[in-house]
Amino acid sequence: MILYLIRHGATEGTERGLYYGATDLPITAESERELRELAEKGGYPAVKKHYTSGMKRAEQSFAALYGDTPHEALPGMREIDLGEFEMRSYEELKNDPKFIEWCTGDNEKNVCPGGESGEQVTRRALEALKPIIEAGEDAVVITHGGVIGGVLAKLFPNPNGRFAFTPGTGTGYAVRFEGAEPIEYHRIPEYENE
Strands 181-188, 172-178: parallel, antiparallel or unpaired by DSSP? Predict the structure, then answer.
């Protein structure tokens, strides 16, 4: 089976360089237009099973890419809850002792004050994906950059962790499984999103 993990389109938070995850932002009108244009070019998989994280930006991105195709929400695929850091910029946070502590040390284990750790997010995402992988049918999941990066880093360990795999908006990865075993991956769509 092939599991396709695709990142949602750009949001105001993306454009303003804000830390956000649990905040349920919509995609921008421009990003929605760009996703529709990318969908027309092809390169997005045609499969029978479709999912999103259920967050507004994932739902809107799904509609731009797949129209009114039936799909299910997987809340376990939602983005990290950044707690006290939500909707704040680096400039606002750079001198905050809690932020400095969170940024230093183990990126995966450090928990955002009032939020989650990267490790917690990856664990819940893999749990949400488990029945899909066990079913063995090709599937598309429209989700979030940090979630995709964490899942790929767990399936295909890399010294740079999730940051080696965090895709740009509207792009992602195709992961081929044999049974429950991840075998290989490649980027999708195969053209650049620019």
Answer: antiparallel
Looking at the DSSP bridge assignments, the partners of residue 61 are: none
CATH of residue 104: 3.40.50.1240
* Residue 121 placed within a domain: yes
Per the structure, how many domains does the chain have? Answer: 1
Residue 18 pairs with which residues in a beta bridge? 89
CA-CA distance, 185 to 174, in Å (whole number)? 5
Tens of pLDDT, residue by residue over 41-97, are: 887 999 999 999 999 999 999 999 999 999 999 999 999 999 999 999 999 999 999
Does the pTM surpass 0.85? The reply is yes
Q: Left, alpha or beta for 138 (phi > 0: left; psi -120 to 50: alpha)?
A: beta
Torsion angles phi and psi, residue 41, rounded to 5: -70, -20
CA distance 104 to 119: 15
Q: 161 lies in which domain range?
A: 2-188
